[in-house]
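Example 3.2
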Amino acid sequence: MFEFFIAKRYLKSKHTINFITIISILSTIGITIGVAALVVVLSVFNGFGSLVTSILVNFDPHIRVTVTSDDGYSQIDAFQKKLSTTDMVQSYYPFVDGKVILLNNKTYEILNLKGVTEHKKDESWGVNTKILSGSFNIFSEEEPDKIVLGLPIALRLSCRIGDTIQVTSANQIEKTITNFAIPSSKRFIVAGIFESNNKDYDLSYAFTSLESGQNILGLRGRITGYEIRLTNIDYSNEVKESLIAEFGTDNFSIDTWYDLHKDLYSVMLVERWSAYIILCLIIAVATFNILGSLTMSVVEKRKEIGVLRSMGTNDKSILQIFMFEGILIGIIGTVIGCLIGLFVCYLQIKYNFYPLDPTKYIIEALPIEIRISDIIVISGMSMLLSFLASLYPAKRAVKTEIIDAIKWE
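Structure, written as tokens:
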């Protein structure tokens, strides 16, 4: 089509270089920088997001079900049957969870004690895969009971493998105060020390067997809920909705891995969008240059426009010529920007040219994850801004009168 051909010719100035050419080049460079920065920054956010998810999911279940009322215990058998007949469920185990006070050498710590079943030690996820010292052998029936602590807690309590610590349930403390009695506590042997690379877990959780947890927490054979592992993490919402549809939310709290860390992911999403908007401003400024350069191009090409109109070129074709000129600038900047951004990401993935200090971080290099959806969104946004910036100059070109344009020719 001749409109595209003329638009391409208009991008090349009659002179070697002039002011309009400089502005067009600056527009292209601005779009290139903005697009490249967006590709790299969003890929870094994707990398960190996937890293955080892998760390959390390697420690947490895909779905956690908590019994929230006494009526919920009457539905436990039906709940277990539902889980055992759901194809997307790979495994599920009961657990207990409650606040306890750990005491050793006149130092105490308050945290959550979690009681798990023996099947847990054979799983490829969770605390049993993060043992730093000792073992996850907490299921022995021999007295005293066994416990696994996070590394920061073990350091604060100055305890090592084989040491004995006192454990008291927070509920027992409350009953002791109200009944004016001496609080009862149990001795636990430290069987293992774990480090999950997540300080919230390391500082907040200790682990023991299900039976030991029930005894110290005073649950009398009851459980807190179930931890569910799925065949694919992508089934989380589907399985959650299925359980809610059958059992409701009055007696059970059903949370996916995302729900368990919703605040964290919300902060990450805000940071991602903030970076996206800020970098989009770079592209927006570049598209303002497109508007300026095309407006001046309309003035410069006024006589050519008049000649085209005198030869029978209609308003639509005149509009398309200058629209194509602006869009071409956007396409060139977008393509080059995407290529540069992808090249930088490739270098980081392949050669880790931006390393991180392993003594301060749990990873050795900046994580990168390229997503085609991001490339499409970035390219589409860049092209849309280029299109909008071309509208005003193109409409101004359409309003050019033939007589005024060529009367001095």
